[in-house]
Design brief:
Blueprint: H1 6-15, E1 19-20, E2 32-36, E3 41-48, E4 51-57, E5 65-71, H2 72-76, E6 82-84, H3 93-102, H4 116-125, H5 131-138, H6 140-158, H7 161-168
Helix pairs in contact: 3-4, 5-6
């Protein structure tokens, strides 16, 4: 029997549970980190010394952001950090880190074809894919929920509550 196909790896990975990162604990080098946000999850690769490489995309503002290396605290943005289980990654530890850093500065984010989850899959498996995007194509209700959550998150980023409160007062 040869190497598992991407579908087999994806199925095996989905069967594994995400593990919360304990406060103060350092993730394994090359770990796939996830922070669940409102309506979506943000993904990055742990590169050591408390740093994560991620596709900033739309995570921090309404503008597309590049692949960047940031602190794990900034990556989390106040949300829980989980370690995404990876079933038989092709690239591990230092090689996954090398791949992640090789794309630093890239600024070709696309929500449906080149997002933070696509980036992490490429770092670990050598192929871009996003389970979140696939789920939206399979279940239109999931797509609608995600779109509404992203829309409200964008509104919140553009107009923080203090501005809204000032308008109401």
């Amino acid at each position: 029997m040869g190497q598992p196909t991407s579908n087999q790896r994806r199925t095996a990975s989905a069967a594994l549970a995400q593990c919360p990162l304990d406060a103060g604990a350092e993730p394994p080098l090359g770990a796939h980190l996830v922070t669940p946000r409102r309506g979506y999850s943000h993904h990055g690769i742990y590169v050591g010394d408390g740093k994560v490489v991620h596709y900033a995309g739309l995570a921090g503002s309404l503008r597309r952001g590049p692949v960047e290396e940031i602190s794990i605290t900034r990556f989390a943005a106040g949300f829980e950090v989980l370690i995404e289980p990876s079933a038989d990654p092709v690239y591990v530890r230092h090689e996954a880190v090398r791949r992640a850093r090789s794309r630093l500065g890239e600024n070709r984010y696309r929500l449906l074809t080149n997002n933070c989850e696509h980036f992490c899959a490429w770092c670990l498996y050598g192929e871009s894919r996003s389970e979140q995007v696939l789920a939206c194509f399979i279940d239109p209700r999931a797509a609608l929920r995600t779109a509404l959550c992203l829309f409200t998150a964008c509104l919140a980023a553009a107009w923080p509550m203090r501005r809204i409160e000032a308008c109401v007062a």
